[in-house]
Hints:
It comes from Methanobrevibacter millerae. InterPro entries: LytR-like, LytTR_DNA-bd_dom. This is Transcriptional regulator, LytTR family. By secondary structure, this protein is an alpha+beta fold. The chain has one domain: CATH 2.40.50.1020. Helices cover about 15% and strands about 35% of the residues. The chain has three helices and ten strands. The protein has helices at about 25-35, 85-90, 135-145; strands at about 40-45, 50-55, 60-65, 70, 75-80, 95-100, 100-105, 110-115, 120-125, 130. The chain has a five-stranded antiparallel beta sheet with strand order 5-4-3-7-6. Strands 8-9-10 form a three-stranded antiparallel beta sheet, with no helix packed on it. A two-stranded antiparallel sheet has the order 1-2. Strand 9 and strand 10 form a beta hairpin.
Amino acid sequence: MKVNLFVSKDIKEAHADIHTNELTDNITKAIAILESDDSNDMLAVKNGSDIALLELGDIYMFRVEDKQVKVYTENSDYLIKKPLYQVEEDLDQSFVRISKTTIVNLKKIQRVAPSLKGMMFIELKNGLKDNISRKYLPEFKEALGL
C-alpha cells in the first residue's frame, strides 16, 4: 500500500483520504484508529509487503533478531522499522525490558524460573522463551511487585 503524508501549517484540522479498490480489514482498522483518540494503543507493523495494525495488548514480545525488531503475538511475528529503544519509549507499564534485545508484556507471562549464572528464565503463554539478564532483573522484579 502506498502512503502519502502532507504536513502544512495552513491546515486547521488534520484529515485523511483513503483511496482503494477494496475495503479490507486493515483499511477498516486504520479508519477506526484514525477516528479514535486511542491511537497510542495500536502499533503499525510489517507483514510481508502489507502493513498490519496490532493492539498493544495482543503483543507478547519485542526482540531484536538479525538487526531487526520482531514483534511477536500469540501465533505470528512481524517486523517494525523502529529501533528497540524507541519502541520502549512508546509502551506503557505492561511492558518491561528483560535484556538488551528483548521487551516482554508482563500480562503474557506463563512462568519465571531460575536459570544459569544468576539469570532468570521466562516463558510466555504462547510458548516463547527468553532469559532475563542480571542487569534488568531488578527492574523486572519491581515491575512484578516483588
